[in-house]
Write a structure and sequence with these properties.
heterodimer; A: 96 residues; alpha+beta; Ribosomal Protein S5, domain 2; four-stranded mixed sheet; 2 helices; 34% helix; B: 285 residues; alpha/beta; TIM Barrel; eight-stranded parallel sheet; two-stranded antiparallel ribbon; 11 helices; 46% helix; globular; lyase (chain A); CitD (chain A); EC 4.1.3.6 (chain A)
């Protein structure tokens, strides 16, 4: 998947997560800024899930800004997938 | 059946805890146009992860002629929820076209054609006129529902909340469902603060023959369940009729009296329905 533009998905509502995706230069790696209300207990799990999802989409270079409000794993995966597809311009709803 | 907006994670994950018989994960009217993609992906992930045990799970997709309808089908059909709800169906050709698409997607995923049911929503005057032919088109269609808000808009009704303008449509839709022996669900009651109004409407549509009612807020569940659950008195009366029927049947008597009222086959049938709704096994009487 080729990321072409900045995009976001999700919200600051309880049980949701807001994810901002930004394309970066090839070789820059995965730059992930993660904030979560359950950071202490689930931060590592959340980060592990994000990496696994990025692996699934074969994305090695990206900047992610993630603000989690206690989202369940399916919500995290869904919001990341939506933001990535918007950034790749495969979906509508891209941040202008 | 509790409507849950498809782009609301908190509500999606809690949907089954309120005691509704079914949940409807909505990709259509409850989702903003610029969030249709997000809702579709979220509902797909939730269907794989959340157990809605004890609740029938239905997903309402967008109409096939919108820019979102086909993608909704492609993402949701492979997940095979209990049912798929198709909004604003108006003609037989339309339902034929949508069912063909659904079956095409099922074939691509090696899925059977008889696992996931289809609910049809009637929400326009044209749909009301064609409802019987639509409902009987396929055995996969196991329920019809009436969408009062869209129907009122289509009929250009200014005042719609008293139900007068859609009364004919309600009766037409019920009759079509009964003729096809399938379930029929009434529209939502939008004034969530008005519990008495909801009760009156639920009692009215129960009398018309509706199987159940769509709701938009968990606080409406109790009222609708109370109306649709047989009372103790109704259950006792039904049990008495069925027991009397069994006794009389053994003696070759088809028509008899219970508490001074004539009982024949249709009365017994209604009594059996009451017991069925109360989850009472006739054999246990």
């Amino acid at each position: 998947m080729e990321l072409k533009t900045k995009a976001q998905a999700g919200s600051f509502e309880s049980s949701d997560v807001l994810i901002l995706v930004e394309p970066v230069e090839k070789g820059a790696g995965r730059i992930i800024e993660l904030k979560s209300i359950v950071m202490q207990q689930f931060g590592d799990d959340l980060l592990g899930q994000i990496h696994a999802n990025l692996d699934d989409f074969k994305i090695d270079d990206v900047r992610l800004i993630i603000n989690d409000k206690g989202a369940l794993p399916p919500t995290v995966s869904a919001r990341l997938e939506t933001a990535l597809k918007r950034a790749a311009q495969l979906q509508s709803g891209t941040l202008k | 059946m509790l409507y849950i907006p498809g782009n609301n994670p908190a509500m999606l994950q809690q949907g089954s805890v309120y005691g509704a018989d079914g949940v409807l994960l909505d990709l259509e009217d409850a989702v903003a146009l610029n969030q249709k993609d997000a809702a579709r992906i979220l509902v797909a992930h939730m269907l794989k992860y959340i157990s809605y045990e004890g609740c029938e799970v239905t997903v309402r997709v967008n109409h096939i002629d919108t820019p979102f309808g086909l993608e909704d089908l492609k993402q949701i059909v492979p997940l095979q929820p209990d049912a798929l709800r198709l909004p604003k169906v108006e003609t037989v050709d339309e339902i034929k076209r949508i069912l063909e698409l659904i079956e095409q997607i099922e074939d691509e995923h090696n899925l059977p054609h008889n696992q996931m049911n289809v609910h049809v929503m009637i929400e326009t005057a044209l749909g009301v006129q064609n409802v019987y032919d639509i409902a009987r088109y396929s055995p996969r269609i196991d329920a019809i529902s009436i969408g009062g808000q869209d129907l009122a808009a289509d009929m250009q009704l200014v005042k719609a909340n008293d139900g007068v303008g859609i009364d004919y449509a309600r009766k037409q839709v019920v009759m079509a469902a009964k003729a096809c022996k399938i379930d029929v669900f009434d529209t939502v009651f939008v004034d969530v603060e008005n519990e008495e109004g909801l009760r009156e409407e639920a009692e009215y549509i129960k009398k018309l023959g509706f199987t159940g009612k769509a709701i938009i807020n968990p606080r409406q569940i109790e009222v609708v369940n109370e109306v649709f659950t047989p009372t103790e008195l109704e259950i006792r009366k039904a049990a008495k009729i069925v027991k009397a029927f069994e006794r009389n049947k053994a003696e070759g008597i088809g028509v008899f009296a219970v508490d001074g009222k004539m009982v024949d086959a249709p009365v017994v049938q209604r009594a059996l329905r009451v017991l069925e709704m109360a989850d009472i096994d006739v054999e246990s009487l």
